[in-house]
């Protein structure tokens, strides 16, 4: 009887399923430091996934991170290994509550410059050690040797700086699932063979089926070879990188991963701050239902860039000024734009030769071409908001964010049909695409844009289509969840 009463008084059992723990490993995050699109994705994707997973971020403790993150508690010491120094593992939090693990190693990370280069634009000579430290820390945390109260069920690695994370797990015989996202295959983290021992890479791994890449070692190849699953940032780019012309020497391995069902393309989204109805940087806000405010932003851009006030079309270039981005094509096409009454505003920095050529272009066409070397967030947002067209003749573009920013702000992108540009622009509907990356094809697309500008009804229809295109992270995050699930299921049977 007593036993029955005890059973009756016991609270009903409730099955609680623990949310999976995801460690998102990145070399940059827009909250604190960014050099490109990876920083934007690292800020947005974990936030889009946080409702479904216990997702946390791991990043090196650069000076920019430590100065902005606020309180950081050191929760562990990660030991030295081979030539990789010991470091502290700090735990902090973003303003909206995302947990961020920070590698505390002043000798590696607390420097002026960007995450990858010194103030003069030269790669740090110890980048192999700096980012091997990141990959090794990711593996340690996944194995339960970091935060004593948390361990990762899955590592989400990003680009070459974290690529060794998957390899270190494999060399330990651990079967923790790993996802590697390739944001740009052209950056591979290539180092000399004599660095193997310093990085703790087994001699047997220096092989075509391992980290070896044309006699050197590649962090990115290590990630591709050892990761459970590979993603890249658009479906078209996922196909392109399996071909020699886009594969950067890794197309054979990537074709193998595609045949195995271990390569997916998932287009990036953009964060909700890109809303012309709410953006605090704009001088006049607007929407797809009423975009009259574009004119005030256009006039602001014209004044800021030294352009004449005009009723003609305004073209924007917001880009790194490098060969990949087709800056030379934009310079060559400028004569066509100016001769048709158009104006061009350019913001960005990059190769000195392109910076010089753009300054010379502006001097040849005062009042019609304006150039600012550098980057300013407010200027960029007002350029998207005020321009009629965005020039984006990239020779290759894994995903691209600028075309989506432009579309959201009612500026029609004119872009090469490649990578994420092909996946996000519908030709003649919400932008213009051209085939081969040459001046002739590019100027043909520009002329189609100019014809559209002269038809206010058609221009308005295309602007609305561009602004109403889905731009958020929901669909992309759902696809990442499917990849996570497949990777975890596969690891369970290894």
UniProtKB/TrEMBL annotation:
InterPro entries: Glyco_trans_1 (IPR001296), GS/SS (IPR011835), Starch_synth_cat_dom (IPR013534). Synthesizes alpha-1,4-glucan chains using ADP-glucose. It comes from Microvirga vignae. This is Glycogen synthase. The keyword Chloroplast does not apply. Pathway: Glycan biosynthesis; glycogen biosynthesis. GO terms for molecular function: alpha-1,4-glucan glucosyltransferase (ADP-glucose donor) activity; alpha-1,4-glucan glucosyltransferase (UDP-glucose donor) activity. It catalyses: [(1->4)-alpha-D-glucosyl](n) + ADP-alpha-D-glucose = [(1->4)-alpha-D-glucosyl](n+1) + ADP + H(+). HAMAP family: Glycogen_synth. Belongs to the glycosyltransferase 1 family. Bacterial/plant glycogen synthase subfamily. ADP-alpha-D-glucose binds at residue 34. It is an enzyme of class 2 (transferase). SUPFAM superfamilies: UDP-Glycosyltransferase/glycogen phosphorylase. The gene is glgA. GO terms for biological process: glycogen biosynthetic process. Residues 22-255 form the Starch synthase catalytic domain. Keywords: Glycogen biosynthesis, Glycosyltransferase, Transferase. Its EC number is 2.4.1.21. Residues 311-460 form the Glycosyl transferase family domain.
């Amino acid at each position: 009887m007593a036993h029955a009463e005890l059973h009756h008084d016991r609270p009903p059992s409730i099955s609680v399923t623990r949310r999976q723990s995801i460690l998102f490993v990145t070399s940059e995050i827009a909250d604190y430091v960014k050099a490109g699109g990876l920083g934007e994705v690292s800020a947005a994707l974990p936030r889009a996934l946080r409702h479904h997973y216990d997702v946390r971020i791991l990043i090196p403790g650069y000076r920019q991170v430590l100065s902005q993150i606020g309180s950081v508690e050191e929760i562990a010491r990660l030991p030295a290994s081979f030539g990789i120094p010991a470091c502290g593992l700090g735990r902090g939090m973003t303003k909206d509550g995302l947990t961020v693990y920070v590698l505390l190693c002043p000798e590696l990370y607390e420097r002026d410059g960007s995450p990858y280069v010194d103030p003069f634009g030269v790669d740090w000579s110890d980048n192999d050690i700096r980012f091997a430290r990141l990959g090794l820390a990711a593996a340690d945390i996944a194995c339960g040797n970091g935060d004593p109260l948390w361990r990762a069920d899955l590592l989400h690695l990003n680009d070459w700086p974290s690529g060794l994370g998957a390899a270190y797990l494999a060399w330990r015989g651990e079967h923790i699932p790993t996802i590697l996202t390739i944001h740009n295959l052209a950056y591979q983290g290539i180092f000399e063979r004599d660095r193997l021992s310093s990085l703790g890479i087994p001699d047997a791994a220096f092989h075509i089926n391992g980290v070896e890449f044309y006699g050197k070692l590649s962090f990115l190849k290590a990630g591709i070879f050892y990761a459970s699953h590979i993603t890249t940032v658009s479906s078209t780019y996922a196909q392109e990188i399996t071909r020699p012309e886009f594969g950067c020497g890794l197309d054979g391995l990537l074709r193998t991963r595609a045949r195995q069902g271990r390569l997916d393309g998932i287009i990036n989204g953009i964060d909700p701050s890109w809303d012309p109805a709410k953006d605090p940087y704009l001088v006049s806000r607007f929407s797809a239902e009423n975009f009259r405010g574009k004119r005030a932003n256009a006039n602001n851009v014209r004044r800021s860039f030294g352009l004449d006030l005009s009723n003609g079309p305004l073209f924007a270039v917001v880009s790194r000024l490098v060969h990949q981005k087709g800056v030379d094509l934009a310079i060559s096409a400028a004569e066509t734009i100016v001769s048709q009454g158009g104006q061009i505003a350019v913001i960005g920095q990059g190769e000195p030769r392109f910076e010089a050529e753009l300054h010379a272009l502006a001097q040849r066409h005062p009042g019609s071409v304006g150039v600012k070397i550098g980057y300013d967030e407010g200027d960029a947002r007002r350029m998207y908001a005020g321009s009629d067209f965005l020039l984006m003749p990239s020779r290759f573009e894994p995903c691209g964010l600028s075309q989506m920013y432009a579309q959201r702000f009612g500026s029609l992108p004119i872009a090469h049909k490649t990578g994420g540009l092909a996946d996000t622009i519908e030709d003649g509907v919400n932008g213009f695409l051209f085939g081969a990356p040459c001046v002739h094809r590019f100027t043909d697309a520009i002329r189609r844009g100019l014809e559209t500008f002269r038809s206010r009804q058609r221009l308005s229809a295309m602007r609305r289509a561009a602004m109403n295109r889905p731009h958020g992270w929901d669909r992309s995050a759902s696809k990442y969840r499917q990849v996570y699930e497949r990777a975890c299921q596969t690891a369970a049977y290894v």
